[in-house]
Fold this sequence. Notes:
The structure holds three protein chains of three kinds.
Chain A: E1 4-5, E2 18-22, E3 25-29, H1 35-41, E4 48-49, E5 56-57, E6 70-75, E7 78-84, E8 94-98, H2 124-128, H3 134-144, E9 161-172, H4 176-187, E10 192-195, H5 205-208, H6 217-230, E11 234-236, E12 239-245, E13 249-254, E14 263-274, E15 278-280, E16 293-295, H7 296-306, E17 308-309, E18 313-318, H8 323-332, E19 336-341, E20 348-351, E21 355-360, E22 363-366, E23 369-373, E24 376-378, H9 381-385, E25 390-393, E26 398-401, E27 408-410, H10 420-431, E28 459-461, E29 466-467, H11 468-476, H12 482-489, H13 501-513, H14 517-520, H15 535-538, E30 550-551, H16 555-560, E31 563-568, E32 571-577, H17 582-595, E33 597-601, E34 608-611, H18 615-622, E35 635-641, E36 647-657, E37 660-665, H19 670-681, E38 691-694, E39 699-705, H20 709-716, E40 731-737, E41 740-746, E42 754-760, H21 764-775, E43 780-782, H22 785-794, H23 817-821, H24 835-838, E44 843-849, E45 862-865, E46 872-883, E47 888-896, E48 905-910, E49 913-920
Parallel strand pairs in A: 2-8, 9-10, 9-14, 10-11, 14-27, 16-23, 18-19, 18-23, 30-32, 33-43
Antiparallel strand pairs in A: 1-17, 2-3, 4-5, 6-7, 6-8, 12-13, 13-14, 15-24, 20-21, 21-22, 25-26, 28-29, 31-32, 33-39, 34-37, 34-38, 35-36, 36-37, 39-42, 40-41, 41-42, 44-47, 44-49, 45-46, 45-48, 46-47, 48-49
Helix pairs in contact in A: 4-6, 4-10, 7-8, 11-13, 17-22, 20-21
Chain B: E1 19-21, E2 24-29, E3 34-38, H1 41-47, E4 53-54, E5 59-60, E6 65-70, E7 73-77, E8 85-87, E9 92-96, E10 101-107, H2 111-115, E11 131-134, E12 137-144, E13 149-155, H3 159-175
Parallel strand pairs in B: 4-6, 5-12
Antiparallel strand pairs in B: 1-2, 2-10, 3-7, 3-9, 6-7, 8-9, 10-13, 11-12, 12-13
Chain C: E1 3-6, E2 10-13, E3 17-22, H1 36-44, E4 52-59, E5 64-71, E6 77-82
Amino acid sequence: MSSSRLPGYGLIDHSKTLAFQFDGKQFQGHPGDTLASALLANGVRIIARSFKYHRPRGVWGAWFDDPNAIFDVSLNGIKIPNCAGATTCLRDGMRVQSVNTFPTAQFDVKAILDWFSPFLPAGFYYKTFMWPNWHLFEPTIRKMAGLGKLSEEITENYQSDQIHQNCDLLVVGGGAAGLVAASAAAQSGQSVLLVEDHNIAGGGLYRRGREIENQPPGHWVEQQIDAIKSAGGQLLLATTAFGVYDHNLVALAEDRGFGRAPRLWKIRAKRIVMTTGAIDRPLTFVNNDRPGVMSVEGALEFLGRYGVLAGRQIALLSNNNRAEPSANLLREAGANVRVLDATQGSPAAIGGKILRGIEFAAQTIACDTILASGGLTPVVHLWRQAGGKLDWDEKISAFIPGKPPNNMVAAGSVNGTFDLEEAMAEARAAALDLPVPRTDSSFQVKTLSPDRHSTGRQWIDFQHDVTLKDIELAARENYASVEHLKRYTTLGMASDQGKTSNMAGLDALASIQNRSIPEVGTTTFRPPFIPVPLELYRGAHRQQLLHPLKRLILEPEHRAAGAALGEYGGWLRPAWYGTGSSHEAIKQEVLAARNNAAIIDASPLGKIEILGPDAEKFVNFVFYNTISTLKPGHIRYGFMLSERGIIFDDGVVTRIDENRFIISCSSSHVDSVNRALEGWRQDGNDPDSVFVHDTTQNWSTITISGPQARKILTVLDLGVDLSPEAFPHMSFRQGNFASDPARISRVSFTGDLSYEISVPLSNTSLLWSAVISSGKPLGAALVGVEALAILRAEKGYIFVGKDTDGETMPHDLGLSIPRMRKKTPFVGDRALHTLTANSENRRQLVGLLIGKDDEILTTGAHLIENSGTRPRSIGYVTSSYHSPTLGHPIALALLEKGTTLTGKTVPVWNQGETRQAKVVSPCLFDAEGGRLNA
Amino acid sequence: MRDDSTRWAAASGYDRPDININGLQISVIRPWRQTLISGPISKSLELGYQKRAVGWPEIAKGKNYAIRMRRDRIMLINGPAIEDGWHKDKGLAVSDMSDACAVIQLEGVLADSVLKRGTELDIGIPSGSVVRVFHGFETFIYRWQSKDIFRLHIQFGYLESIWLLLQNFSNQASAQPCTNWR
Amino acid sequence: MQQFPCPFCGLRDEREFHFAGEAGKMRPDTSGEVTQTDWSRYLNSYKNREGKASEVWVHLPCQEYFIMHRDTLSMKVLGTEQLRRQEEI
């Protein structure tokens, strides 16, 4: 064992132990450990296998910059795949399984893949599995792809929380700079939110172990937090800012512990201070992916925060002046450290599963651990997401924040200011919106590029097994842009997202192309900065809330009557009643409706009121049909069109009085019709002279239809003369029910005598039972939407959007008089006279008949023409039912030149089968309208 | 054809127990009248005997009050009975909407935290109106009587869904209240 | 997630708004002759400018249509113009 726990070191609680399992073996850790620190403390070096070659991998970094430690973790019956080992807190009883390994990370049978690595270069899959067809290979390759295994069990209550919150100042990163910025800002009276992704603030302070403002780091951090809180600031720990969006919206993911979905904070901040710090940069050398090769900062973090010494015999390979101080910290902790200047030779790690040493400048140095640092990389991801520019700082060989995005400022290590005093000075200024002082950093780094002439593989992306050779190959194949390189080699993809591998990759490409890193440029930084579960975004939008339906006030009555419920146009409505076969129930409902009467809950029908002196002019403009001639108390059926002349909705318009109309649009189109009306009202009309009130949900509508309808209404005593002469078809009367107003429209969607009675919602239940008790003795039946759909189809009445499509104009349905005669402008008028509108080949609404005992036609089946070399679709079936009234199948269809084909036979093609249907009029029931006008 | 009646929990309408958690109380209340008036605001207020229609974050007071919905529209809560239709003399359009909107009252210091789950509600961003999209639903949200009592008007048809959301987020808000800076 | 200013309701989340067309586009007067070209231009031609753009937007909950000037590259809102006359509150 090479790495070990040091008593007295770190922030962990050494007095308590937590038991856990890794790949079946028992281990112990302490509260405050992460999975990675606990495994290292137990001397476990091989914690994973790489994605492509199944090479053994060890922990590389101590936090989000570790690309290797990815585990499937289960605890108390909850299994979460692909947990990042360096950021997942250890809990007692956790069972941790390495991913991408079989059976264990220590011994993985697929490691044989590494022998074939010369045959698996970048783009291997693209090149190899092209012929004859990728889909032939896809299933096998898919099985090998991916990391952890999803649990088959559903994790109960795994639901994210989502909060919108604002603040004057958001500080991202709770290291020294962040704490100072937050406390300065809070004390100046700003509302401050500080987010820190560890569950203990302090950032890199514990790593260096030295005093800050003459106090131990822990004390100092506590003091800062007290200052922030007492000045009214808020601190969110274990929370990562993972995305910056437009207009200063920052998304935070708060870790709520293992097995619980994170909480999403959507923070709208007036200003944002980025104190996101910096991470160590990997060095590119031969076998730099071996377990035991770690980042220097990672090793110091394991020491300072978790009390884990990374190794006993350490070779510290670095190109910067932090090497000696770092080595001293490790020496104080008991390690034997030899510092090597990485610019002075081409290193190579020696050993396989166990690191034996390092070859450097022609000598072999025995060691159990190699710590490597290629400099520090400021964490500029969020800065770039927000649109901030980057400057190349030659002195530290790194990109630092340049021209800032709106309302954002950076301070501390992220600026390349690695000296504590200077970083804190920057933070104070940033917090108070003062000019940020910039000083020369004491950090010095020697430029270093990968040695392209070494034999042996040098890793750039540890997670995806991208080596220097892969990058050379990609460059040779002219994937010269860094964005192309990324996609061709998968460099920096998956959970890394350009964190750890980014700079090494850019450095490699730059040196291959003989360009500078700033010339090569970076890939685009996109959210999320750390992996977040999709659940974070879903939140409460699940099950009934995924697509919430509107609910009827009569739903309890429908349920009591045994209704089957279904979604119709955004409402949950009775489909049919009764528990037997749906087919039979619907048939009986249709027959009862034709023979006696139907009682239908039609409450979702639109009731949009148009009021004002310009109401007549307005309705006349928005409708295809002429409405200006409609007299009070009368109703007219008509279409609303889009400006392209396409039927947008159909409905009836009722004129109540001179200045008031009610548009009863389709149930499912109320919201869109309401919006369209409001749009036209404010465009080209005087909005002070016409108003649109959507009163749909104030009123319930019960339709009573059928030969017995009038008798049923008589019993209700609505105070209205119901005789056909006094109350003819397409007229409207105001009556009373339960001493409240009741509106009665004599309109029909069934083809039979029908009344629609509308009452305020609170009277609906009363009206419903009154209608049932007067209707039942007369043979009336409750009728659901399915039977209604048949009743209207027998009559050739359409559903807009079902029997019409995005090309259907009114004259395609035979309603061409306004098109030819209406004098005043209306929506869509000009579009009805284009070449397309005038074409002779338009699809028109027709009826279709087949044999009496045939199976009904399939809705959507194509009507075809066989005259050319290939069959051609000339239309399709839009509605198809078995008509109980007529005793044979019926169908509606849109058919090219349909009206000229009446009486002819057309082939109907569906899934390879062709049948013959006769073209007829869409209206197959009571064509004379005797029943309608009864 | 499919019967989805079991996939949707039976609707309870107005009859439902309050939500009570950590001092937060959420209940359905039934104003006896809600009247929609469109037209010049001064005229609308005159018709409803009101001095002012509240926007955000004003606090509506008393049993009868008016809330502002648009540049040219208010809603009277428990106002006088006014005939539906066009009022020629005043140039106002009136519709009774007493049954169109369900009204939910949220009371307690956590109320604001529940609401912030579904909308960017900010005391520091005033608004002429109380209309607001909450969890994707068009609603009216305003304060009533005190800074900790909120009223939420929603389309009646969405009462079931919004109640489910409020139940869900009451628990969440109780676990993590929002910080109110002012 | 952007924030747009409704001239009446003030600053709101972008989810409360819909784009309603480019500003300055007039519906041809269909009480007279409208050429095919003019009608087609009205329906189909959009400048879709990069950078500064003037557009009609609607604030859905209050249904106010207004003109918004914004920069389609930086997403900055440059200002709004109300289409309705000002009224006392």
